[in-house]
Design goal:
Mean pLDDT: 80
Distance between the termini: 39 Å
Strand content: 15-25%
Helix content: 40-55%
Low-confidence stretches: 112-116
Number of domains: 2
Structural class: alpha+beta
Radius of gyration: 16 Å
Strand order of the largest sheet: 1-2
């Protein structure tokens, strides 16, 4: 967590208008992930900093984002406001692990289904 915050701090020293964060939650304890994402949100609001966030934790990323892009195999297959992506049934099932009735699916089930159904052919 300290290393991630140090990297963010070093990047901010040059007063950028845009910052790219690649998997800031990778390998961190949930408590530290929450703290780092709060810092990212604060930077966006207070410093008017544009943040390009690359994150596999879709639920967390969409919780703080204004706009989102879904990439599969290096291609953008979906994009829209974070709210519209959070409400999208396919996003809920494939990336958030939720079924139509709100029950959680196991990662194994989602992963298997994802292999059979692709966004792009």
């Amino acid at each position: 967590g300290e290393q991630q915050m140090l990297v963010i701090g070093r990047a901010l020293m040059s007063s950028p208008r845009v910052i790219l964060l690649d998997e800031p939650s990778l390998g961190l304890a949930p408590m530290l992930v929450e703290e780092i994402f709060e810092i990212v949100q604060r930077m966006n609001r207070q410093e008017k900093l544009t943040v390009l966030l690359v994150e596999q934790n879709a639920a967390l990323a969409l919780a703080i984002a204004e706009h989102g892009y879904v990439m599969e195999n290096g291609r953008i297959v979906l994009e829209g406001s974070a709210a519209s992506l959070r409400d999208n049934a396919d996003i809920k099932e494939f990336y958030l692990g939720l079924t139509e009735v709100g029950a959680r699916k196991s990662y194994r089930d989602v992963k298997h289904y994802k292999r059979r159904k692709r966004w792009l052919s």
